[in-house]
């Protein structure tokens, strides 16, 4: 069969257009799974064959794009291979406008520093972080910890929580930093939504933001096994807020399920670093050259990695890095400007936590809510940001340079969707 070539043109002008795709020449059979530009992600899936010269349809999700962009795909097909090359032509001013509107430059909620709350909020606003004791019962925490262990066993890779010889990568689903799980539909497991829906958790974020009309992140969990011999691990002090965002924009949370003492690994926080965020980034700073640094093209990511020199800058100004020790049922909050990282366990206790972040629904633009709806309906996770930076894309876990054979797109146990979940997901309005 001779090589056949065709061209697909995508022209966007304005807000929420339909997409017109046409084959210029040839009999083309191609499957395009995604087109990715800046923060606008179009998920498309179609097959063009002989006799099908054009398709007109709406994108599954279309965040506001630049005013003018042309994407050209050159598609070449033979009997055995398909090659796709994508060229972007972007209006520079439009790109700058998009970036300018993407990053808020002040607190989304104004807090009076002189206000005395008489509860955990006083410590939070002073230090940028706080530990809240006994948010759920130890019995409920054990329920969640057991659910997480069962989740690992569901992959049938030979993991046994009572046999440390199975606490290796070959017996576990693929994770980040030795225990953070974001793939396999895990962010929408029933246990994750049960944790997000805990009344005491919702109450914490209600008090923090001054509203009960909240939306949640579709964040992951951490199941860290101690004494891993197969891991090369290094500290990665970072903050989860892009330097171009100024002020308090998000507050992250962690619900702890297992005993977590000084030797059990866990959350490291730099007390007081959030208040120095603007001062530190008033000068040009470069993210540390670290193995976990995102590629340069992902400049939109809300992640900045700090070097040892950077940490010294904060320490000289009175900031202190400390390990958060927790009991089952405790909850810790930290401003996303706070420097932090997760440390691996050194003792013999498995670490079990669920990451939870909520912000007011009013922070979210319509496009973000539309994206969240798509993610919710398709079991796609997000970062810790509930109201922005929603990427409608699934990163497949890789094992030995190939997609993990156990890769799945749905949770093992789907949530029992109710009114609370729909509102927290951003799918259903509060009024």
Tell how many strands the DSSP assignment holds.
21
Radius of gyration: 23 Å
Look up the CATH topology of the largest domain. Answer: Jelly Rolls
The CATH H-level homologous superfamily of the largest domain = q2cbj1_9rhob like domain
Beta-strand percent range: 15-25%
- Which runs of at least 5 residues are low in confidence (pLDDT < 50)? 1-101
CATH secondary-structure class of the largest domain: Mainly Beta
Count, helices: 9
Mean pLDDT: 77
Known CATH architecture of the largest domain: Sandwich
What order do the SSEs take from the amino end to the carboxyl end, as H and E?
Answer: EEEEEEEHHEHEHHEEEEEHEHEEEEHEEH
Notes on the structure:
It is a single chain. The chain has two domains: 99 residues; 305 residues, q2cbj1_9rhob like domain (Jelly Rolls), CATH 2.60.120.620. Helix content is 19%, strand content 23%. The chain contains nine helices and 21 strands. Strand 20 and strand 21 form a beta hairpin. The N terminus is likely disordered. Pfam families: PhyH (PF05721).
Strand and helix layout:
Blueprint: E1 4-12, E2 19-22, E3 35-37, E4 40-42, E5 54-57, E6 69-77, E7 82-90, H1 92-102, H2 120-127, E8 129-132, H3 138-153, E9 180-181, H4 190-196, H5 199-209, E10 214-216, E11 221-224, E12 238-239, E13 251-256, E14 266-271, H6 277-280, E15 304-305, H7 308-315, E16 320-323, E17 331-335, E18 340-343, E19 351-360, H8 366-377, E20 398-399, E21 402-403, H9 419-424
Summarize the structure in short:
With 431 residues, the protein is of the alpha+beta class. It is 19% helix and 23% strand.
